[in-house]
Description:
This protein has 346 residues and is α+β, with helices and mostly antiparallel strands. The protein has two domains: 7-196, Fructose-1,6-Bisphosphatase, subunit A, domain 1 (Fructose-1,6-Bisphosphatase, Chain A, domain 1, 2-Layer Sandwich); 207-329, D-Maltodextrin-Binding Protein, domain 2 (3-Layer(aba) Sandwich), CATH 3.40.190. The protein is built from seven helices and 19 strands. It has helices spanning 7-15, 24-44, 67-83, 220-231, 242-252, 271-284, 316-329, and strands at residues 54-58, 64-66, 86-91, 98-99, 110-118, 129-137, 160-166, 170-175, 181-186, 191-196, 207-209, 235-236, 255-258, 269-270, 288-290, 308-309, 311-314, 334-337, 340-345. An eight-stranded mixed sheet has the order 4-3-5-6-7-8-9-10, sandwiched between helices. Strands 12-11-13-17-15 form a five-stranded mixed sheet, with helices on both faces. Strands 1-2 form a two-stranded antiparallel ribbon. Strand 1 and strand 2 (64-66) form a beta hairpin. Helix 1 (7-15) packs antiparallel against helix 2 (24-44), helix 2 runs antiparallel to helix 3 and helix 4 packs across helix 7. The longest helix has 21 residues, at 24-44. It is globular, with a radius of gyration of 20 Å. The N and C termini lie far apart (61 Å). The model is unreliable at 341-346 (pLDDT under 50). 6-O-phosphono-alpha-D-fructofuranose is lined by residues 63, 118-119, 121, 211, 240-242, 268-269. Residues 63, 118-119, 121, 211, 240-242, 268-269 line the site of 6-O-phosphono-alpha-D-fructofuranose.
Amino acid sequence: MSRIVTLDEFIIQRQKDFPYASGELTGLLRDIGVAAKIVNREVNKAGLVSILGVANAENATGDEVQKLDLYANDKLIDCLKNSGECCGIASEENEGFISIPSIESKKAKYVVVFDPLDGSSNIDVNVSVGTIFGIYRRKSKDTGPCEMEDFLQKGSELVAGGYVIYGTSTILVYSTGSGVNGFTLDPSIGEFCLSHRDIKIPDRGNYYSVNQGYYLKFDVEMRRYIDYCSDLNLRLRYIGSMVSDVHRTLFKGGIFLYPNTRKFPKGKLRILYECNPLSFIVEQAGGKAVTCDMDRILDIKPTELHQRSSIAIGSPGMIDEMRDFVQKYSMPTPYVENGASNGTPA
Ligand code: P6P
């Protein structure tokens, strides 16, 4: 049996790969690991204590907030505040970003974006949920508080990205841009232990993942591609928790789609703390992540914290196939001049 390598040990080992690393990012990743253990403890007993159910509130993007969402949000914020390495936080649960005062004049270099508990509508029915996080180097001067520009960065500028999935086991998957590794929480010792080294996504998979209930609301090119997946007898798997669907896609291969709909004309999923960190991970594992117009997710320059996007993410061979359908079936956006469409495609 190979020697146990804990998350802390691995992060420190990898820090040696960056001779000029000064340890702040290492500290930040370890603090996120601590927060994940705290959240995991509550998720695992959510049915026993009164933190199930709806918190009679809505979050910044209008989603109904579960009590465990708020618990996870608070714990992540507390851990990051105490780290001294983070000068700002943007969370799905908060309208604006949170500026963190420096500790003992330490000049924190990083900001963190996260969805504290993605898929939380599944909590009450005991279906996997997860935490998604991304870490950026601040762009604003380190002599003052963080600014909006620190958060509105492209996903390609992420310094680190990852997620924790609270499922049959609790697994933390992250990348700092040199491959993807997974760590499974061993409750007997309270440590995340290296369990999936250098994860690579298969070029294709037998699964496609989309909310079939919206099929008739998708654009024609998406419907034709979904028909194609069905004709190939691929298996439809959709959990309603992006982090869980992408985790399966990463390990088994396949494609996860959330196209734009009439209700969400720009797509439903949030760029900063859902699409970008998961796209960073999947690209690092050899996969692809694009909008349903085939623009690379990590190239999008966000203009607001809770900006949404359509997304297709997963095996490279399947994303390339989807591109063929978009090129063949997508309708050109009608050209509109002076507010009156003259019917000429753009
Ligand atoms: P729908 C969860 O609320 C979430 O943000 C993602 O985790 C998930 O993939 C998606 O929304 C599910 O949305 O519209 O299919 O219920």
